[in-house]
Amino acid sequence: MTSASKSLHGQRVLVTGGTGGIGAAIVEQLVEEGAWPLIHYGRDKTAAEELLDRISGKGTILQADLSTADGPFQLWQQAQVSGRIHALVNNAGIRSEVSVDAEPEVWKATWMREFQVNFFAAADLCKQAIQHFRAHGGGKIVNMASRAGQRGYAANAMPYGATKAALVNLTKSIAVSFGREGIFAVAIAPGWVRTEMAEAYIAKNGKAAAVADIPIGEMAEPAEIAELVSFVLRPSQLSLNGATLDVNGGSYIR
Ligand code: NAD
Quick one: which of 17, 146, 163 has its CA closest to 98? Predict the structure, then answer.
């Protein structure tokens, strides 16, 4: 293993949704590059323990429900107990479907939950991280957005696109406002990535519907996103701040 491949040595990185498709790939890549992941999970303790086994125990697992108002703050509290955190990866997310024909209570509840998990939890964790980074010489934030937040989204999943657009804007605000204090923020905007979230869509609509507008004709692999997260976190990346990194096979070019 080259020294470049251990470029994250000593970094403690909080990854939300760390047991999901993309989250687990991020955790594995971080360990590969020498970091110590703080692996957040929501409900699936077994998946978290299995992942910890796969990385030979080189991480810490933390539970929190990000659909509650207190969840993100409790998570940060647990994460910072054992010392300095160098980076936060807001990766947890849900993709819900709701029609404009839904009953108002259903419509409203879906929007509220989507914003709580995908955006408010991330914003709360960014707040905590910024305060922590200020006191400890800086740090980096990676927010997992989506192509859906850039180009508008399907009629039955409008809340998802809106939460991701908000996340991109939050990322830019942090980059602009706190860069001088050594705090960096970057958004990653994947198109479809081969995980349970994508499989759920494919099961309903077929693969052709997912890849029809992707010039390379394929979804991304979780490992591709993980590699990019690690790249952003490299200490040698001193100017990568405020960007939205597109990983969409050429399906949305700005
Ligand atoms: P996934 O469903 O495999 O993982 C989502 C993770 O979020 C899980 O670990 C889950 O436990 C966690 N989570 C969900 N609700 C939670 C809650 N209330 N409390 C705590 N944790 C909760 O999905 P994924 O594809 O790995 O998605 C990861 C991120 O990437 C998400 O933010 C998603 O929006 C984004 N993304 C995914 C795709 C895709 O095609 N898969 C495309 C673009 C962006």
Answer: 163
State whether residue 130 is helix, strand or coil: helix
The per-residue pLDDT for 29 is: 98
SS3 string, 58-125, reads CCEEEECCCCCCCHHHHHHHHHHCCCCCCEEEECCCCCCCCCCCCCHHHHHHHHHHHHHHHHHHHHHH
pLDDT tens digits, residue range 172-198?
999 999 999 999 999 999 999 999 989
pLDDT bin (cut points 50, 70, 90) of residue 4 is low
Selection from 132, 133, 145 nearest residue 90 by Cα = 145
Residue-wise pLDDT for 114-147, tens only, equals: 999 999 999 999 999 999 999 999 999 999 999 9
Token pair for 180: 């001088």
Task: Name all residues whose Cβ lies below 6 A of ligand 1.
Answer: 17, 19-23, 41-42, 65-67, 91-95, 117, 144, 146, 190, 192-193, 195-198
State the pLDDT at residue 3. 45
Q: Alpha-carbon distance 33 to 51, whole Å?
A: 16
Among 61, 73, 94, 153, residue to substitute to test ligand 1 (most atoms within 8 Å of Cβ)? 94
User: Which two three-digit tokens encode residue 147?
Assistant: 């192509």
The answer to whether 90 and 71 have CB atoms below 8 angstroms apart is no
- Nearest-CA neighbor of 146 among 127, 119, 123? 119
Looking at residue 166, its pLDDT comes to 98
